[in-house]
Hints:
The protein has one domain. It contains two helices and five strands. The N and C termini lie far apart (42 Å).
Amino acid sequence: MSHWTIKQKREEQKRTLRAQIELIVSNSDCLINKLEVDPDHFGNVIVELKSKPCILRFIQDRGDVYFEKESISSVIRTEQQLVFTHNESLGKDFETLLKAIELKIRG
């Protein structure tokens, strides 16, 4: 049995999350622009997807998942929308975040 360090486990978790997001956006024009995972702060995550007309930002904060949309051609940003609350969590790790991304990308 291998013994992973905390850093190795975090990096593997981030690689897995990136792969799952790439699968969700594979049939869209979105690319992952930014992915930050902060396990020291309740597992908070920031995912920024870039498409031709806009940047889509997903923020998981203490189990709540928020969504923002920003136009690339201007500095106009929509207000942050709460997509899921921690009470609506779909499971452990990043399942709720991935579902929110899927809902916004695939409709």
